[in-house]
Amino acid sequence: MATFKLLLLFSMSSLSFVGGIDTDQDFSWQLKKVPQLVKEKTFSLDTPKFEANPQLELSGVCGIECQRTLPVPHLSDLKDLLSYETVFDNGTRTLTVVNVLGAELDSPANATTAKVPSRMKRQVYGTDSRFSISDTRFLTNYPFNTAVKISTGCSGVLVSPKHVLTAAHCVHDGKDYIKGSKKLRVGLLRLKSKGNGKRRRGARRSKREESGAEEYSADAKQPKQRSSRRAGRRQKAFGLNEGKPEGKPSFQWTRVKSTHIPKGWLRGVAGDVAVDYDYAVLELKRPHKKKYMDLGISPVSKGSPGSMIHFSGYDADRPGQLVYRFCSISDESSDLFYQYCDAESGSTGSGIYLRLKEPSNNKWKRKIIAVYSGHQWVDVNGEQQDYNVGVRITPLKYAQICLWIHGNNADCAQG
């Protein structure tokens, strides 16, 4: 019965959880021409120190009204912001300078750089509306199995057989790479077979990597082990004892070969971290065999049923559980979504997705349209108001992320 409830809930939230809207409206993915990012030069940089402390909450948001009044960026600004840094697993680092072709400079850059006072963090609003996915029939199948755990304590989403999209601040604080990111790992959920007691080749290393991954957390000051006694509290778990699962869910940890971060995230460019560029792509050493999510260009909030967004991640207050949530977008700028999806630390870096129709075949398809950045205080009508914020995938960001994934612009002409 619990499994049926979860299936019904997920179907409703994906398709028609839209009280009061015109259900005859055509909610389709709108293909847009994507600007081209062309690599011009690549320079070697000094080896990073990997000494930055994880950030529980970002600061530097100038506010919704402030963003809307920012000037239209110059082409030279875009070239600087969209050039990118790459750090490799051996500690070497490069800077790639890009040229931007075909960009339509008709909207503000909305770089969020002004400082705001620090206040009490609140990421769950009112009644906790998150859902722990525990039934393995959902947990190990699409779209939930595209969510991954990052060894620094964040979440991410699979966007190719070898690439994970996450938040930049999960690996970099704007000045340096955070502690633990030198040996970065990505945890892919799998079913641990009961078997006959034989150890699978490579399992020893995976277990060691999993324990080491708990040492650092970009979103939690305490290691996972210390909060294990609190596991199970405040949960909405569906299908926990349904059926007879073949094995216990666990993580298979894979090393990261390289990490790409936009230069717009670096403090030397923006003066402070710019939340608009809080995204990064991790390239895995070994390809996975799971289904992944395609990228999509973020439509305006009215372009989705009920203005609803969805994402799943590994919230720190529910250790070892995949947590799913959905909610409506409250406000937006050209680069950010402001919403009240309940989310705790650990879910940062999750892929925010929509389910819209493909124009070619009229079939519904999910695509990643934003990255969950975390909790923010922003200026609204001269007052501080808190939101949970997502970084939208604009045509320019789509072009950059696509370039990181494919290495060229051949597959990035339309999004």
UniProtKB/TrEMBL annotation:
InterPro entries: Glutamyl_endopeptidase, Peptidase_S1_PA, Peptidase_S1_PA_chymotrypsin, Trypsin_dom, TRYPSIN_HIS. It comes from the Eukaryota. The keyword Glycoprotein applies. It is found in: Secreted. Residues 1-20 form the signal peptide. GO terms for cellular component: extracellular region. One of its GO terms (biological process) is proteolysis. Residues 190-206, 223-236 have a biased composition (Basic residues). Keywords: Glycoprotein, Hydrolase, Protease, Secreted, Serine protease homolog, Signal. The keyword Secreted applies. Residues 190-251 are annotated as: Disordered. GO terms for molecular function: serine-type endopeptidase activity. Residues 140-200 form the Peptidase S1 domain. It holds the Pfam family Trypsin. Belongs to the peptidase S1 family. Snake venom subfamily. PANTHER family: INACTIVE SERINE PROTEASE 35, SERINE PROTEASE. This is Inactive serine protease 35. The gene is PRSS35.
